[in-house]
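On clarity, I found the account of how folds are encoded harder to follow than it need be. For illustration, here is how one protein appears when written out as sequence plus structure tokens:

:::
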Amino acid sequence: MSGRRSFLDEIDIKILNLLQEDCRTSLDKIAEQLPVAKSTVQYRIKRLEEEGIIEGYHAKINASKLGYDLLVAVNVRANFGPGYHDKVGNKLAQLPGVIAVYFIFGESDFIVLIRGKDRRELFKKMKMLYDLEGIERVNTNVVTEIIKDNPRIIFNLEKQP
């Protein structure tokens, strides 16, 4: 299946919230918390996966505890041309240490997030970015403190007026 789903009902939303909280939650436990049959939970999860709403299951890893203490947000301006955002965006995404690439509208064309263990490693990664064909200008911002980093989608179960 492809395309956007027209709606999510309360059961779908509760399943998504529980899986985002802990993707290892068993079908039995989800069924117990909702409360619905285990087969209903299994069917709903399978459907959400097939529709592309659930794209995967991941462990949230503390990068700092593994020594990846440096995080930079790089604003990248690219040379404009046909399909440039796909060409340059894909090149940026392939660089080592790049954890996110966002195509944006504004003064820059992309925001790129890069992690590194130390200044030397980060400089090597940044040099690769600077040397990419199609890059016009970059502006690098060093993240000094992460105040919020939460990729979850927060669903509001209250009815909207």
